[in-house]
Specification:
The chain is of the alpha+beta class and 114 residues long. 27% of the residues lie in helices and 24% in strands. A hairpin with an 8-residue loop joins strand 3 (58-65) and strand 4.
Length: 114
């Protein structure tokens, strides 16, 4: 039976942390806390990252297998979450679409009247 040494990598937006003046955290790799020889890991941890919506709307959670000193780390799997959709929800997005449709209808009326 094979084993893994899994660890999470969390990324928001472009994944680039800010410089010393801007202390934005957009990337966290928890490789130093990999769970050794664990095929069913449970990560009971929390992470805080910074984002500016709508620019940094995508949150990616990836689980990696820590490689030996000879080999590199291997991606086990990942998922991507749209933070803006979670923040404002479907009702907001549906309302925004209706406003855009109405705006197009008004623009067409104005165009046809001229």
């Amino acid at each position: 039976m094979s084993t893994t040494d899994p660890f999470p990598v969390i990324t928001v937006g472009n994944g680039k942390n800010g410089d010393k003046d801007k202390k934005f955290i957009r990337f966290i790799s928890d490789a130093e806390k990999a769970l050794e020889k664990n095929v069913n890991p449970a990560f009971f941890r929390y992470y805080e990252l910074d984002c500016l919506l709508p620019k940094d709307r995508n949150l990616t959670v990836a689980i990696w297998d820590k490689g030996s000193w000879l080999g590199g780390d291997t991606l086990i799997g990942q998922t991507e979450i749209d933070l803006e959709l979670r923040r404002v929800g479907d009702k907001y997005n549906q309302a925004r679409e209706l406003v855009q449709i109405k705006l197009k209808q008004i623009q067409e009326k104005i165009k046809n009247n001229n």
